Amino acid sequence: MTEVVIDQRAAQRPKPGKRASLAVRLTRTYRSEIAIAIAIVVLLVGISFWSPYVLTWGNLANIAQAAAPLILMSLGVFLVIATSGIDLSVGSTFSLTGMVAGLCFSAGLPWPIACLISLGVGAAVGAINGGLVTIVGLAPFVVTLITYAIGASLSFVITDGHSIAIADANFWKLNGGELIPGVTNFVLFCAIAVIALEFVLRKLVVGRWVFAIGSNDKAARLLGIPVHGVRFGVYVASGLAASFASLLSLSYISNSESTAGANLMLQAIAACVIGGASLFGGTGSAIGAMLGAIMITVIQNGVNLIGINSFWQGTVTGAVILVAVLIDRATKVRS
Amino acid sequence: MKQVSVSSDMSAVRETQGETNATSFVLEAKAIEKSFGATHVLRGANLRIRRGEIHALLGGNGAGKSTLIRIISGSHRHDGGSISIDGREDPDANAIAVVFQELALLPHLSVAENITLPHRKRALARLSEAECFEEAHAALALVDQELAERALDWPVAQLDLHERQFVEIARALSSGARVLLLDEPTANLTFSETERLFGILRRLAQQGISTLLVSHRMGEIRALADVCTVLRDGRSVLDRASLSEISDEAIVEAMGQKSSALPQAAPRSTIATSARTQIVLRGSGVSLSVGSGEVLGLAGAPAGPSGVIETLIGARRSGGWRLTIDGTDVTFASPAQAVRAGVGYVSGDRAEKGILATLPILDNIVAAARVAGRHILASSGEAAAAQTALDTLSIKASSIDALPQTVSGGTQQKLLLARWLAPAPKILVLEEPTRGVDIGTKREIYAMIRDAAAAGCVVVWWSTEFTELIAVCDRVIAFDLGGQVSGILGHDELDEVSLSRATGMAA
Predict the structure, then answer these.
(1) Which residues from B are below 8 Å from A198, CB to CB?
(2) Which candidate, B115, B163, B113, B166, places its Cα nearest to that of B143?
(3) What is the distance in angstroms between the Cα of A306 and the nearest Cα belonging to chain B?
(4) From CA B167, how far away is CA B145, in angstroms rounded?
(5) What ipTM, to 2 d.p.?
(6) Would you list the DSSP string of B315-352?
(7) How much of chain B exceeds pLDDT 70, in percent?
(8) Mean pLDDT for the stretch of residues B7-15
(9) A204 vs chain B: nearest CA distance in angstroms?
(10) Does the beta-carbon distance from B106 to A203 stay under 8 Å?
(11) CA–CA dist A185, B197 (Å, integer)
(12) DSSP sequence for A141-170
């Protein structure tokens, strides 16, 4: 009886399950990302009162160039954070990749080969992280603290602490060339990475698995989601992203140093948090992580332009993270 | 595409129901044996569930219930015996679906994703939202049409508890489940939510979907189930007993538990004058004076009782209630203040609010005494005190140095009560202390509650199980669904109908 009634009601409705229109859904999904984008614009305009130079084309290009490696790195770290993990090793992976690349160039290898070998550093560190987290079952914080310490030390060991100047005349093309005429490569790489990752996270099954694991890993396992495989994958992706970020930066700077990535780990985690990711996992977006990275870079740029002692950068960044987290919390409580 | 397959599954169920024998078993587990090392957990247990039947599974802690469930749901292998599903011996992991209250959902993901993600096995497959929506809608509409229209794109975190259960049932149906397994499903549901859930389960039963109800609550078992299987020491002592022909006492006896008489109130005159306490609770338009030796029950949805409890234990300043102890107005700014003023607190949410899981039983027992007595050193006398507490309450534990996880859930609950034996609080606040505890242990806990009252405690006890409030309490404050007091019932006025009517909750 009841069943029949339900069938009739269902038949009256042409489309099952009402959904909001695309525009409404996009604004709802990317609410906090839109807020960060607005905050970045407000910040730039605010800085321009002290230093009008900030809004010139040249300076905006500087910001983009400085942000590119951090964006790529943050995307990798975000993947790990979305599964409720953490990757502290990305900074030293960045440094170590640069030193390995430097050695490859010193040995006279052609730059594409040198790049592939250097990317192996990130893949290896990621695989070690992922293996220890999944197979051995150690806590991500502990595992990546270990690889952070070892990586940071090895980047001094392999060149005895010397920096290496890159002499290869063509390597700059990685960062500064134009695979698509009119678009500098570093912009292209960042755009592809953000769009591709956002697509994977929203539209592919594996992307939903990433959030599912961060949301409730026990439930995810009970549902038959390959929790270990996905976890392993995000650490490898994070390592590769850090290595690629390092190569991009090296291609621009042409000089590899053992301390190159020292500050980047905290900045990458901060970018994810500013971008709306919860360290407990399950939330955030690739676009958010990118915007977080841009915001951090804008702050650094602004501190320099206004002429504040650069020692204050960390304090300003910390304050911004606090504000971002408090706003996020306030809006969550309301909804 | 997918929607078609789901609905054809359902029509297939109806068809097979029509053509096969109506008495066929959808699940037939016979003479199941299982050992873990030297421990022989199951010794020939039977569980036979008919198509479209609601079947209750009962058993004390350690009777082998959870092991049997894990075997039939495919997470453990059995050592001996046979399991057939729809008459076939090959196990089908999806045929038996466990419906957890909230554990198995992904709170950040949408309802539609929660229902459909388990069927998406290819990592790099494109997730078509429209397809997900259709598939999820088809499954959820079988359970609750209104929810299917309203909430498919909501994150699960925004749903109510009972709606999450519906989502889990829908997920089970869309993976082809023929038996739903529910564990104490009505513990926190209101009367109308419970009716909705029962209505769904009965309707699914008519369509050939069976329910296995695992519960210690006779109320929900009687309301919903047709037959029961009772486990004791790994054997089925009652195998498909018809519930209409068996009494509660016979079931308790079959479980091998003392069907001890319920404890009676001790006359107040036996309490020493020096140990007497009188408290006054004021709030929600009511003023109530409660004295030593009395057990005051709180009944109703969480909103009302939690205000009283939070005020008493100092968890929240604005619980909406005012407290007077022995003529003095008291406001606790923190739980520590409440403990030192003589308020003890035991929650049935052992994992979150009670047991210190990484500390040995010793620390778990003396934790309250340390706070109440402002101890700085962990003294050597504590071990003796803890042992005394265990002996007094006849709690079985291998050693006070063992971790709490080495004893059963019911015993852990008794440890939490033992925690308050030495501090001898004036007021003992209990929040669902018998949740998930078997009937035998429940009766022991009732006796402990009565003993505490007889020793001079004022006991304030929130329970969602009306039968125990009726059996043990002297008075009960009933709260309506809005958290307001809807009545104060004396011992003689207490019955399930009056409590149900006053609270809006299911018995």
Answers:
(1) none
(2) B166
(3) 41
(4) 12
(5) 0.77
(6) S-TTSS-EEEETTEEE--SSHHHHHHTTEEEEES-HHH
(7) 90
(8) 42
(9) 5
(10) no
(11) 58
(12) HHHHHHHHHHHHHHHHHTTTT--EE---TT
Q: How far apart (Å, rounded) are the C-alpha atoms in residues B486 and B476?
A: 11
* Alpha carbons B240 and B47: distance in angstroms, whole number: 8
Considering only CB atoms, which chain A residues are within 8 Å of B127? 203-205, 207-208
Minimal CA–CA distance to A200: which of B127, B114, B117, B154?
B127
Q: Do B108 and A219 make contact, defined as CB atoms within 8 angstroms?
A: no
Asked if B107 lies within 8 A of A19 by C-beta distance, the reply is no
Looking at residue A138, its pLDDT comes to 96
The C-alpha angle with vertex B226 and arms to B222 and B232, in degrees rounded to 5, equals: 80
What per-residue confidence (pLDDT) applies to B104?
81
Quick one: DSSP state of residue A319?
A: H
Sign of the CA dihedral running A13, A15, A17, A22: negative
What are the DSSP calls for A196-254, one per residue?
Answer: HHHHHHHHBHHHHHHHHHHH-HHHHHHTT--HHHHHHHHHHHHHHHHHHHHHHHHHHH-
Name the 3-class secondary structure at B405.
helix
- Whether residue A289 is predicted with pLDDT greater than 80 in this model: the reply is yes
Q: Do A18 and B125 touch (CB under 8 A)?
A: no
CA separation for the pair B393, B382 (Å, rounded): 17
User: Considering only alpha carbons, which residue of chain B is nearest residue A202?
Assistant: B127
Contact call for A205 and B124, based on CB within 8 A: yes
Mean pLDDT of B476-500: 87
Strand order, beta sheet including B458-462: B343-347, B427-431, B458-462, B295-299, B475-479, B485-490
Residue B198 tokens, joined: 């029962």
**Segment of B2-16, B111-125, B196-210, B378-392 carrying the highest mean pLDDT:** B196-210
Mutate which of A18, A84, A208, A334 to test chain B, going by most B C-beta atoms within 10 A? Answer: A208
Interface test mutation site (partner B, options A13, A218, A223, A228, max chain B beta carbons within 10 A): A223
First and final C-alpha spacing in chain B? 43
Decide if A212 and B117 are in contact by the 8 Å CB cutoff: yes
Q: What are phi and psi of B239, to 5 degrees?
A: -120, 105
Q: What is the pLDDT of residues B140-166, one digit of tens each?
A: 999 999 999 988 988 898 888 888 889
* pTM for this entry: 0.79
pLDDT band at B67 (very low <50, low <70, confident <90, very high): confident
Find the range with the poorest average confidence among A233-242, B132-141, B306-315, B380-389: B380-389
Q: What's residue B4's pLDDT? A: 38
- Alpha carbon of B394: minimum distance to chain A alpha carbons (Å): 35
A220, A209 in Cβ contact below 8 A?
yes
CA distance A105 to A107: 5
Burial label for A17, CB within 10 Å (0-12, 13-18, 19+), is buried
- First-residue to last-residue Cα distance in chain A: 39
Average pLDDT over residues A60-77: 96
Q: Which residues of A touch B142 (CB under 8 A)?
A: 6
